[in-house]
Design brief:
The chain is of the alpha+beta class and 99 residues long. Helices cover 42% and strands 19% of the residues.
């Protein structure tokens, strides 16, 4: 039971996007089972690590479908979601709470 609860709370992580040039060149290590996602517009973006279990959630899948309709599927590089980071964090918390 505790393992399930901790997994739900750890379904995403927010990363510090301010990194050195050397770190950017080498790339950041993404933990196994997580997908990096940039949330927000160019200036006000935040990097999140989303656990792969979150992609199975119907609400999260619906969000990704709306993003695909808005920006399309041909987005090079990291997955980007044009949404306010605080709003996105609240959405993830609600999804985690429901599950």
């Amino acid at each position: 039971m505790l393992r399930q609860l901790s997994r739900r709370r750890a379904s995403y992580r927010r990363l510090n996007v301010q990194s050195t040039d050397k770190e950017r060149d080498q790339g950041e290590a993404v933990p196994k089972g997580y997908v990096p996602v940039m949330v927000g517009r160019e200036k006000d973006s935040a990097k999140f690590l989303i656990h792969i279990d979150m992609f199975k959630n119907e609400y999260f899948a619906g969000l990704l479908e709306m993003v695909a309709q808005e920006v399309g599927y041909k987005n090079p590089g990291i997955l980007r979601i044009p949404c306010d980071a605080e709003c996105f964090r609240n959405l993830l918390n609600e999804i985690s709470r429901i599950n």
